Amino acid sequence: MSTVEGDLLHTVEAGSISASRRFWGRTALWLSAIWFITSFVLQGAHELGWTDWGFANWRPVLYAYFLWAAVLCVTRVVIYGEPGKKALFVLPAALFVVSMVVFPLLFALWIGFSDWNLASSTGRRFNGLDNVRRMIADPFYANALLNMVLYCLAIVVEYAIAFGLALLLNQEIIARKFWRVTFLIPLMLSPVAVSWMVGKSMLETRFGPIARFARWLGWDPSFFGDPLTAKLSIMIMDAWTFIPFMMIMLLAGLQGLSREVLEAAEVDGATKWQRFWKVTFPLMLPVSVTAVMIRVIFKLKLADIIITVTSGGPGGATDSVTSFIYREYRDRSNVGYGTLLALVYLVIIVFGMTMLMKIADRIVKRMTGRL
Question: What pTM was computed for the model?
């Protein structure tokens, strides 16, 4: 025990804590943990129909968790003294993450193996692996997954365009600041606004200006009537919205490059293409990988434009996984099946992004190691 300047700074060393204090601290912690675990197991058994004992909903279990979390934070100091205070800088945030992330995931897993249609009067009931079998045999979900692969592959073209624009805006061109702001305008618009301005207005088959201009050229357009054309239209609208995002990141990377390295390559007689491919591009790989990774994350969430413009049509040809799951909830009120699809998609995203990051890291090390 130590005090400084009239007890303004009070510390409790671990060696000065009495045995009775530790005992009561551990007792309170164990009692709160037992109450939380018991209420959780009891409510789970009640939901499965194994027992009549339980609560009307999961709210008492949530209260039991909050009680255990509060007791855990307090007993860290009660049992360990000053070292326990250090845990309070991290422990509340970790417990909050558990309550906001882990519990909803567990509840989603619970719902995913249930037959729960909001339009049905029977309510939710456990159906085992029925949703899994339905997912495996669902051609529309498989089509949505394939569409996501195509949409993500389009990022290669988006990256090339964004890199070209970044190189252009990095040069001493006329009205450079004006063009930088102009190219950023699509990024300032929401995808829903882009969907209405471009998809619902400019590309409208009967009265849209682009469609009328195409008919004037002798082509009768159907931007969203043909599956291939509809996919390309969705890709173009989404690319127009997010290419400026990659462009601004790549432009920031280009402005951070060392001028001495580029000037040395020019003095050595390297052409513009050689300076770009052998010097600029490898040096820009870390920024490029970051921009592409973030773009992939946004692409995997693609839904706004599809839902607003095509609703997944024609015949599910433009569906992304997110828009397909959304329609399972909205149109079919199928909460159980839609939740299972979302969980499977989450697993695919985590595995795919992990593999993609490992591959990107190897490529960056290999190319930058040559410099």
Answer: 0.81
Between CA 284 and CA 133 the distance in angstroms is 46
Q: Would you say 320 and 144 are in contact if contact means Cβ atoms under 8 Å apart?
A: yes
What value does the mean pLDDT take over residues 201-225?
Answer: 82
Burial of 108 (0-12, 13-18, 19+ CB in 10 A): middle
Q: Cα(71)–Cα(24) distance, rounded to whole angstroms? A: 12
Share of the chain residues as helix, strand and coil, in percent rounded to the nearest 5:
70, 5, 25
Which tens digits make up the pLDDT trace of 157-172?
999 999 999 999 988 8
The residues pairing with 126 across neighbouring beta strands, listed in sequence order, are 114
Quick one: which H or E segment has residue 114? strand 114-115
- Give the Cα separation of 266 and 260 in Å (integer): 10
Closest CA to 304 of 206, 210, 200: 200
DSSP class of 54: S
Phi, psi of 284 (to 5 degrees): -90, -5
